[in-house]
Amino acid sequence: MTSIVGTGQLVRHALRRDRVLATTWVLVLLVTCYASAAATASLYPTEPDRVRAAEAINATPAIVALYGPILDVHSPGELAMTKMTVLYAVFVALMCLVLVRRHTRVEEESGRTELVAGTAIGRSAPLASATLEATLVSIVLGALAALGNIVAGLPVAGSVAFGASWAGVGLVAIGLTAVACQVSASARTCAAIASSLVGVLFLVRAVGDTSLTGLSWLSPFGWSTQLRAYSGPRWWVLLLYVALAGVLVVLAQVLHDRRDLGSGMLAARPGRAHGSPRLSDAVALAVKLHGAMLATWTVAMLVMGGIFGAIAPNIGALLDSPAARAMIERIGGEGVLEETLIAAELSILAVVMTCFALTVVGHSATDEHDGRTEQVLATATSRSRAFAATVVVALAGATWLLLVTGVAVTLGYGVVGGRFGNAFGDLVAAALVQAPAVWVVTALAAACLALGTRWAVAGWAVLVLFVSLGQLGELLRLPGWVIGLSPYTHVPQLPVESFAAQPELTMTLIAALVLIVAWARYRSRDIG
């Protein structure tokens, strides 16, 4: 028992540190879940409409791969929670990944865990507190999601089962991340391992749902569907989450007891005695540090963009109710509907690309906080060059990912729909036109970094604010000028709309001005 002494104190400290991060993440997930549950009844007012929509989803492999199948086409709850059951469960898993990694490997790598260990805190208390805190957040999220769905009009038992599935996915992600933190001695490698495992589990579920029947039972995301939350819940499936999470946490504890503080089960490879002369340049060094992450994101965007592009040609079949058909006719037919869907998909993916840029800025803040930036500045590298390295990699990397996504969407759309035509130029342009909005948010994140390392996390708050205004502003009936604060609302919706240069140039100018101010501030403040 002495090894976990002080766990309660560390949990309270972690909850205080994460009060903004966790609360924001939970609120965004809850509002999105509630909006999906509340909107389904108006879009599909009768049971035949819902059945046709569910059958159309099941008949489209690309949609099943992304969202999962609807096992009971007569269940309004399963249709309402189509996206939430699997796709948004991934976001729940990522939230837990961030929380556990933040309070274990990041703290250990920075040396703060060693300082804490010098007090009356047990050796296993940091790991125990991180898993316990993330577990509490997962359970609260699941309970609130269940309550929100009940308020939105969905069945009570199904809503409880659905909320429990989100909490269960969170528990498994906690265990995966805890193991990854013991395997790797680097916070970045730990994040790469844990996120890759989440991606593999999602892919296994997708393959099982679309081709190899039964394979989805090997993935927690598959369990979320097989739970049948809104069509006769299989309550015993919830035990699978608990069992797997328990095994993973125990394994993490065993690995933790077998390694030294600050190390990992896989020892970090020693670097070369003499680095490449090219790495003396700050930009080249930043590219080297983030190259593996950029490669991983590139592959992920190729897959995601291809799936999103493959969904578009089948969108007409998903909206087969009279109300939906009337909407299609009003906007100009199924061709326009496909373009509208692609524009909406690309706007969502643009937010994802922004996360890459903010991650790069966040790594720069971590490097500065841990003293690595000061070592770089001790050479002939100037502050301006160090700041520029972060900005260049963040902006160029996000823009590259937008280009890759545009190409992938085009390929998915062309292969499934059989209509390439001018799609390549139109859809790639529709992706790249999102870049100025991404640049504005990245510039604001860089400005937060310029204020100091403790402000760097505010860049994520800016992103959440802008996304919430754009996605939920009309639902909340906010004034137009408030919604317009989000740069994502000013992006021309290609290929539905024609290109408009004025908002693109305005956002580019704003990004440039913010970066100039941030650069001036970074040059004048203390490092660290």
Q: What is the total number of structural domains?
A: 2
DSSP helical segment count:
24
- Please mark out the parts with pLDDT under 50 across 5 or more consecutive residues, or reply none: 327-334
Structural class: mainly alpha
Q: In percent, how helical is the residue content? A: over 70%
Mean pLDDT: 84
- Shape summary: globular
> First CA to last CA: what distance?
38 Å
Order of helices and strands: HHHHHHHHHHHHHHHHHHHHHHHH
What is the number of E strands? 0
Explained architecture:
With 528 residues, this protein is mainly α. It folds into 2 domains: 1-33 and 85-266, no CATH class; 280-528, no CATH class. It contains 24 helices and no strands. The chain has helices spanning 7-17, 19-43, 47-58, 61-67, 76-80, 82-103, 105-110, 112-117, 125-151, 156-183, 187-210, 220-226, 238-257, 282-311, 315-318, 322-331, 334-369, 372-377, 383-417, 423-432, 435-451, 458-472, 480-483, 501-524. Helix 14 (282-311) packs antiparallel against helix 17 and helix 17 runs antiparallel to helix 19. The longest helix has 36 residues, at 334-369. The protein is globular, with a radius of gyration of 24 Å. It starts with 6 loop residues before the first helix and ends with a helix.
